[in-house]
Amino acid sequence: MTTYSEKLRDPRWQKRRLEILERDEWTCQMCSCTSDPLVVHHRYYKQGEEPWEAEDAALVTLCELCHDIEGSTRPDYENTLISTLREKFYAAEILDLAYAISLLKFPPGFIEAQEFIAMLNWLFRHTEIQEELMSRKEVELHGKRTA
Question: Residue 135 has what pLDDT?
């Protein structure tokens, strides 16, 4: 069985890695650093997928420091988000929030927190997305009434 570190030495990963580094202009997408060593980070994995098979949205260029921070803090931050969602929202509202976020068109790579917050503010004022959410809710409710 091939280990993950061996897979990262595979020529297919090395080629994919270079594609992402070039796409991100050899710049850390979190801190904009260009002088420190860079890595291509998998933001998420899909079951059974090889590292080089990941879609563009799953890969981002980070400097080593940001990569370490991402790896060490993400689980805690995700747990904080989940706790907050449980405390503040009903399940259907969480589903609406997830669906609304999925409708956003993010630029390749990582976006800064301030940009994401600005997108969220825009999201809840954007009538097209509000109408899509309402339409989706009506379809769900109609389906439950006829069942």
Answer: 77
Domains of the chain (ranges; CATH) run: 1-88 (3.40.1800), 89-147 (no CATH)
Cα 3 to Cα 7, 8, 50, 62, 143, distances in angstroms: 6, 9, 11, 23, 47
Residues 6+ apart with CB under 8 A from 36: 28, 63, 64, 65
| Stated pTM of the model | 0.65
CB 67 within 8 A of CB 43: no
pLDDT mean for each 10 residues of the chain (147 residues) = 90 96 93 93 92 93 93 90 90 87 62 63 70 70 56
C-alpha 132 chain-centroid distance? 22
Tokens representing residue 13 in the block:
């990963």
